[in-house]
Amino acid sequence: ATVNAIMKVVERKRKKNVRVAVTGLLRRPACNEEYERLQKEVNRDLHEKVLAMKAESIRKREVGSSFLDMDDLIQAGCFLEDGVHLLQEGETKLSQRFICWIRATHLLREGKMD
Question: What global pTM score does this model have?
Fold first, then answer.
């Protein structure tokens, strides 16, 4: 249900000619095996659906969407003690990844990047 809800939002934005970056669920410190299993399953499903949508967008020459995998970027030390919220270091890493994506997609759109 979560993946379908996310993809509905992405599709609505894509129809409005908006570029969308989808990130997966972040791995959290001290989470149990069930969370890890679900996290991997959700991220795999999201990644597959976003790639399919991106391929369709390329064929139609429309604005596409991207899946940004943050799993290896955000380590356990980037979280507050609650294991859910990010410290400044984690927020900085996350925002820098988004900035790189925004720049790259802008350059691609302008035809300045091969």
Answer: 0.75
